[in-house]
Amino acid sequence: MLSERRLQVLRAIVQDYVGTEEPVGSKALTERHNLGVSPATVRNDMAALEDEGYIAQPHTSAGRIPTDKGYRLFVDKLAGVKPMSAPERRAIQNFLDGAVDLDDVVARTVRLLAQLTRQVAVVQYPSLTRSTVRHVELLSLAPARVMLVLITDTGRVEQRMVDCPAPFGEASLADLRARLNSRIAGRRFTDVPPLVEDLPEGFDMEDRGTVSAVLSALLETLVEENEERLMIGGTANLTRFGHDFPLTIRPVLEALEEQVVLLKLLGEAGDSGMTVRIGHENAYEGLNSTSVVSVGYGSGGEAVAKLGVVGPTRMDYPGTMGAVRAVARYVGQILAES
Fold it and tell me: Are 210 and 170 in contact (CB under 8 A)?
């Protein structure tokens, strides 16, 4: 375990390196920070931190920079989440409040996160498997054609065309719509299949084929495999950090193009807590020079998806964590009110 004083020295090194982009020396530390000890003591502390792998000497200058291990300790022990100011919170709310639908919410969230953090922003769409049915609408398009519209509690709207085996009248359609909503509105998607399996039996024989066709379309929507979608923005921000990537920025850009990689980076949507993965903690090799800060968002205290940012390990962790958490909170509120 590091002493409290050495933790303070590490904190000062991280703060200075993030702020100046320059390796930090003992003389600069004692001048900029009220550490209460002599430069010689600070040099000894820096030597101990280097021996334990928390800082490193990038070249033969006197300065040191944090390692992945040093950033990890900084985040775990030393970095509080920096709260957003009242004007910043109002700006977030005003920007997101203008959204007209779920796609607009996600697009605005990506733009906002990229602007606030000056990193790459990634926002996952709410997962259907963790969503609740808000309403089912059935619209007659022709005597034997129906449109099924499924609306979720997160504002997601799914549409399916259903070709009926026989003409289906407006009265029967209204009856099916009412029965469906009475059974599944407000229920989790995973709970729906057993709630509707006996529904055709309550209809006349000539209508049962159409009812079964509508239910098949509904159940296909609930279990669709390609539900995991995300949006990414602010990739150009990485060009400001070219010197933070050891050889080239290309592996980072290639990794960001892989949706599966990004979904794994964000982590399980059901885990709503703040996650910070630093450098080599990211399993994908192309992202070993980056850090990922992510958190779950949703309505009613339950996460339905994740959002976060990707940037170099030399990151303002308290500020980034604060921005990610604040944006997630507002997106959750919008979903709850939509």
Answer: no
